[in-house]
Design brief:
This protein is of the alpha/beta class. The chain has one domain (4-200): Rossmann fold. Helices cover 43% and strands 21% of the residues. The protein is built from eight helices and nine strands. It has helices at 4-7, 24-38, 53-58, 64-75, 92-98, 123-136, 165-189, 195-200, and strands at residues 11-16, 42-47, 78-86, 89-90, 110-117, 141-142, 146-149, 153-155, 161-163. Strands 1, 2, 3, 4, 5, 6 and 7 form a seven-stranded mixed sheet that branches. Helix 2 packs across helix 7. The longest helix has 25 residues, at 165-189.
């Protein structure tokens, strides 16, 4: 098992593709982020509101917000991306965010897509809409996406949430897989040595 020292260096970026904080897809994204944080991973969040609307509409690739977005993606070991499904497609706002990335921005990263929609049929938007876009951005390790219908993620008027047990289990499994893939990579890139143990093992004399 990786030590807390290694875990602290694992960085995950959570990108919310809904403009609403109360979006069901954002609820699932924050739930996944919470699991990772409890495991000791560093999770940063980014939403549509973090990028000026005019930059998204005009595709302002050279703007400071787009530069900051690319820097945060480049620094992440893994990226979680959530979106509601509208008219059998992921959100236009999320597409505008992804258009600001470099062509191979997701190369070498673990990616977990998350989506919610009105019916089970909209699952196809995740498999045949979002995943091909992620692949075009260089993602080669895309985890099994987590999709939930609106009835499986319930919100009351006060913002309290209730996630269906089956959806929660699938999300937990995907997050577990993400952490398993990210932590060994971080451990290899940030080795630490116990000099006392090495000396006792005869690795070298002191």
């Amino acid at each position: 098992m990786s030590s807390p020292r290694h875990q602290a260096h694992a960085r995950v970026l959570a990108i919310a593709g809904s403009p609403s904080q109360r979006s069901r897809s954002s609820v699932l994204l924050r739930h996944a982020a919470g699991i990772l944080q409890r495991r000791g991973l560093s999770v940063g969040e980014l939403g549509l509101r973090d990028i000026p609307a005019e930059d998204l509409i005009e595709g302002n690739y050279a703007g400071p917000a787009a530069n900051a977005l690319r820097a945060r993606v480049a620094a992440a070991d893994a990226v979680m991306i959530s979106s509601p499904v509208y008219q059998a497609s992921f959100s236009g706002g999320l597409k505008a965010v992804l258009d600001l990335l470099d062509p191979k921005a997701l190369a070498g990263k673990v990616v977990l897509p998350i989506a919610t929609g009105g019916s089970p049929a909209h699952l196809l938007a995740l498999e045949y809409g979002l995943k091909p876009v992620l692949s075009a951005l260089g993602a080669r390790h895309i985890l099994a996406g987590v999709y939930a219908t609106d009835t499986q993620v319930r919100l009351d008027e006060f913002g309290a949430r209730e996630i269906d047990g089956e959806v929660s289990r699938r999300l937990d499994d995907s997050v577990e897989r993400l952490s398993e893939l990210v932590l060994p990579r971080v451990a290899v890139s940030s080795p630490s040595y116990d000099l006392g143990r090495l000396a006792l093992a005869g690795a070298f004399s002191v």
